[in-house]
């Protein structure tokens, strides 16, 4: 009996020790995403496939709905890392922030919105937009700036040639379009496909195909967090890179099965079709490097929209060290 009791005690002590070691090796990361979208499929893959856990990270995801609220969460300490458009880091930098946000891992490399028409338009041409009632996105946000950039490239002045409405909150745009008298709207997936499936809209064009490569959504963190958590940021980037590789190597159907828990109200076939649409236009970055050409394209789009507050150098707000390290492993 004594031997049994002694063995039991040793086992319990060992398990407690092992649990303590595992706990000590796990770093908790609070991650804020600007919205919930299939556009961020690699992020959900990293969570569901356990790539963060493999790096010793416990990532808690929160959806903060909008660029302003996401950056507020990051800058106030409500989140350690944010997935949001790179333009937000430029806005913060221009305000002379002492602890501004650094872009360190790119997730998407094109615009992720699609032009949805109220009525079917199999022979759509961009000039069809002239004089239309157009439900736009938030002023100063990437969707709206890219939208304006594309329209201007097609000879359309969005503020002179359209009846442009921009006073609807991001989360309420799909409902407003479906119930209102708007003729066109700019939407992400799977919302665009859901409206199409319900007969309330029809996808007629892709802003991502028209605008070229830009650092559309990027993981960023404050300078101070990066300096104090260098190893954690590298591990986070490595997990994202694993997910990017997995997404590139697998079919839209397989990706949809993995990330389905994040889109429980959307049919699996529709998820797969939406993911395939993003894959076909190379929206998902295949590595976390945000290169200088993309950064300059971003600034050109912001400048064209009249929203570039300062000519922020690439080297000031972009850190590719982590991406380059994990890619060389």
From TrEMBL:
Compartment(s): Periplasm
Gene Ontology CC, one term: periplasmic space
Coarsely, its chief localization is periplasm
Superkingdom: Bacteria
Positions in coiled-coil regions: none
Task: Write the record's keywords in alphabetical order, separated by commas.
Answer: Signal
**Which Pfam family, giving just one, matches this sequence?**
NMT1_2
Do the record's keywords include Signal? yes
User: What does the sequence similarity comment in the record state about its family?
Assistant: Belongs to the bacterial solute-binding protein SsuA/TauA family.
This chain belongs to the protein called NitT/TauT family transport system substrate-binding protein
Organism of origin is: Oceanobacillus polygoni
